[in-house]
Amino acid sequence: xxxGATVGTGTKIWHFCHVSSGARLGEKCVLGQNVFVAPNVxxxxxxxxxxxxxxxxxxxxxxxxFCGPSCVFTNVKTPRCEYPRNTSADYTPTRxxxxxxxxxxxxxxxxxxxxxxxxxxxxxxxxxxxxxxxxVAGVPAKIIGWMSAYGDMLEFDANGRAADSAGARYEKLxxxxxxxxx
Length: 182
What we know:
The chain has strands at residues 6-7, 12-13, 18-19, 24-25, 30-31, 36-37, 42-43, 48-49, 54-55, 59-61, 66-67, 72-73, 94-96, 101-102, 107-108, 113-114, 119-120, 125-126, 134-137, 142-146, 161-163, 169-174, 177-180. By secondary structure, the chain is mainly beta.
């Protein structure tokens, strides 16, 4: 952990990790083995980052985000070796909102937002924003279903309503929009 990095109370950092100066890790996070956190990355509270994940500058993980093993983030839209783009002004923010999950070996390209409760399946290539509670899979990732904040797949009735096993209720507003009611 470099000088100038902030690590919240109760956060656990496992072997072979590097947390750069200027990175901010919240409380009670878990960084698995071989995690890299670049300068100016922001990680909320209760975030779990599994083994072999690199969080490059511009990545923001909100509270309760989950990053599966070896998931990938990028931070430059058009990288070139001969003409490097590696200043803060070149980086496009990528945001993983509260409770969103990214599966093992999934890739999130720079500039996308995975909204609250979104779920990127293992191996997905997330190339555009993911709506709240949407499950996306494939290359490129497409919506294949909906998942509650609790982690249940949602089955909507004829009125566009669903409930999860924890009792939370959801409403499907369109083919690409679901909202949590309670």
